[in-house]
Amino acid sequence: MPIEDILIDLWILEDAPYGDITAGLLPDMNVKARIISKDEGIIAGMFLVRKICRKMGISLHTIKDDGDYIGHGDIIAELYGNSRRILLCERLILNLLMYLSGIATTTRIFVEKARRVNPRVRIAATRKTIPGLRWASKVAVKIGGGDTHRFGLSDSYLIKDNHIRIAGDLERIIIYAKKDSSFTKLVEVEVRTVEEAIIAARSGADIIMFDNMSPSEINQAIEKIKDLGLREKLILEVSGGITLDNIEEYARLDIDVISTSIITMRPKPLDLALKIVSIEEKEG
Question: What CATH superfamily classification does 110-265 receive?
């Protein structure tokens, strides 16, 4: 079963473990509802709304789709079907759309600001996501023009401070990873000093992530990596403390990726509403 189907079942169970007792007071009616924007930004999450509506037997007419710009008052979609079913999934649909659209919109803002000074740099998500929403959050990042980075621990090696502390030696754990890995798995190393960056480059890392380092420290490390003739063999990533206020300063460096958790952990949700606009007919 696809992950989205499993998640939808869990989300509905969470919100209505014994059904919607308020909607259950109402007669069964066929209604028309609209999802309306009270905000502006990039819509994301329609890929889930389609599946929710299909699962609930609700007809969906999409007016705005994932990646589209929406303004205040725009109609995003129209829903047709049983009133109880629409009310049952109303908040689920809105919560997902509001949160995921916030991710896509925030991502787009970061991408546009960074690429004004470095057209080739990628803005990437991190694994800092709300449990149960990682897959959807990463899709929203992609819709906003960002890079998903790894989806989970099984995707690639990412050697961090705690791994180094347990292994006892940075070079040793990189060598272990290179021996253990398939050609399909890259080895990324998080570094916090110029010296660690040089060790990682010399030891065969595929990606170096400069974590919470200043632009001047990162630039110093990059120059030393270039002196070793290793720059073209590496993907260079910057992470830690990246905000809209400083992203241009980091984007000006000779780097390939800027990753930030702000786009998934602190996006401003878009304000959306679902309104019943007409009662079509009584069922039966």
Answer: Aldolase class I (3.20.20.70)
Please determine, looking at this structure, whether the domain spanning 3-103+268-282 carries the CATH number 3.90.1170.20. Answer: yes
What's the CA gap between 67 and 70, in Å, rounded? 9
Q: Where in the chain is the domain with CATH 3.20.20.70?
A: 110-265
Q: What is the pLDDT of residues 247-276, one digit of tens each?
A: 999 999 999 999 999 999 999 999 999 999
Position 152: which residue type? G
> Can you read off the two tokens belonging to residue 224?
């030393």
**By the 8 A CB rule, do 268 and 108 touch?**
no
Give pLDDT tens digits for 78-93.
999 999 999 999 999 9
- Looking at residue 210, its amino acid is F
Element of type H or E holding 35: strand 29-37
Residues 192, 238 contacting (CB under 8 angstroms): no
**Positive or negative torsion for Cα 10, 15, 18, 23:** negative
Strand partners, 279: 31
pLDDT digits (tens, 9 = 90+) for 166-189: 999 999 999 999 999 888 899 999
Angstrom distances, CA of residue 121 to CA of 114, 171, 192: 7, 28, 21
